Amino acid sequence: MSVLTDLIYGGSNAVAGLTEGAVNAAIEKYGADKEVKMPGTAYYLPTIYAATGVKVEKLGDLPACVGVLKSLITNQEDLGQALNAGLATAVGAEILEALKYVENEDPYANESGIGFVPDPIIRSLGVPLVTGDIPGVAVVLGKAENPADVADVVRDYQDKGLMTFMVGDVIEQVAEGGVKMGLEYRVIPLGHDVTSVIHVVTVAVRAALIFGNLEPGNLGGLLEYTKNRVPAFVNTFGAIDSVVVSAGAGAIALGFPVVVDIDLGENQVPGALESVLDHKETVAKSLELRNIKVKAKAVQLPVGFAAAFEGEIIRKNDCYVEFDSDHNPTCELLRMVEDPNEIEDHKIEIVGPDVPENAAELIRMPLATTVRVYGAKMQPDFESVIERKIHSWFNYVEGMYHTGQRNLFRIRISKDSFGKGLRLKDLGEVLYSMIMDEFGEVVDKCEVTFITDKEKVEKFLEEVAMPIYDARDDRLASLTDESVDTFYTCILCQSFAPSHACIVTPERLGLCGAVSWLDAKAGYQLKPTGPNQPIKKERCTNEKTGAYETVNEAIGEATHGAVTQVTLYSIMEDPMTSCGCFECISGIEPMSNGLVVVNREYKGMTPTGMTFGELASMTGGGEQTPGFMGHGRHFISSKKFAYAEGGISRIVWMPKELKDDVAERLNKTAKEVLGIDNYTDMIADETIAEDADALMSFLQEKGHPVLSLDPLM
Ligand code: SF4
Ligand code: NI
Ligand code: CU1
Question: pTM above the 0.70 mark?
Answer without folding.
Answer: yes
